[in-house]
Amino acid sequence: KAGVTQTPRYLIKTRGQQVTLSCSPISGHRSVSWYQQTPGQGLQFLFEYFSETQRNKGNFPGRFSGRQFSNSRSEMNVSTLELGDSALYLCASRVFSSYEQYFGPGTRLTVT
Amino acid sequence: SQQGEEDPQALSIQEGENATMNCSYKTSINNLQWYRQNSGRGLVHLILIRSNEREKHSGRLRVTLDTSKKSSSLLITASRAADTASYFCATDADNDYKLSFGAGTTVTVRA
Which residues contact B52 (CB under 8 A, 6 or more apart)? Predict the structure, then answer.
């Protein structure tokens, strides 16, 4: 099976802009979670989607949003970018009944 | 916020030696997982141990869990250069599949 894919892999944006990141889960995985990784805060949970519904949300401002499509692909959007949003954004998918998460390679976002 | 804290923050060992890292967490958990991350890439799931288990093995990996001390350890035996990576513990406190990660231990295996 193909692994979790994320596009784009690298992105440079300017403060105030918005960005959309994409994640394609492993075939058959209907749950997709997003995490932000920064040197200062480490790995933090953003949100999880299952069957196009947000099941869980982390402690992030409303500028961070996401959605999931009927084919389980997911997107996350960050509006009004701030310098502190520079991070590696990781997407993970899992079979709904399993705790084991499969991570993609991440999208490295740099905000200048 | 981070639920787990790994110790040590960094570890440098010779190839063939064992590497041990510890994770402490704050609240009761349903299960604890260990993940590996190579140089800023995605995480790879290594092993999961449930709250009612005390020890688990997978290949060269041995994980222990002490729920009374809210701590876990990961032992990598006979380390190889390919084991050079950052290792994270992750807990699921509310059984809602929302993982809380520790800060990680960076392991360097010298040839």
Answer: none
Q: Give chain A's residues under pLDDT 70.
A: none
**Rounded Cα distance, B68 and B65, in Å:** 9
B1 contacts A101? CB cut-off 8 A:
no
Contact criterion met (CB below 8 Å) for A23 and A5: yes
- The pLDDT of residue A106: 97
Chain A neighbors of B100, CB-CB under 8 A: 45
The neighbouring-strand residues paired with B10 are B106
Cα separations in angstroms, A101 against A49, A98, B10, B97, B111: 13, 8, 25, 9, 31
Q: What is the pLDDT of residues B90-107, one digit of tens each?
A: 998 777 788 999 999 999
Q: In the numeric block, which tokens belong to residue A49? A: 């989607």
Q: Are B63 and A70 in contact (CB under 8 A)?
A: no
Q: Mention every residue, 6+ apart, whose C-beta is less than 8 A from residue A32.
A: A23, A25, A48, A49, A50, A68, A72, A73, A74, A91, A92, A93
Structural tokens at position A66: 């996401």
Q: Sort out which chain B residues have CB atoms less than 8 A from A58's CB and list them.
A: 98
Angle at CA of residue A33, ends A31 and A35, nearest 5°? 170
User: Which single residue is written with the structure tokens 């916020």?
Assistant: B1
Count of alpha carbons within 13 angstroms of residue B58, beta-carbon side: 12
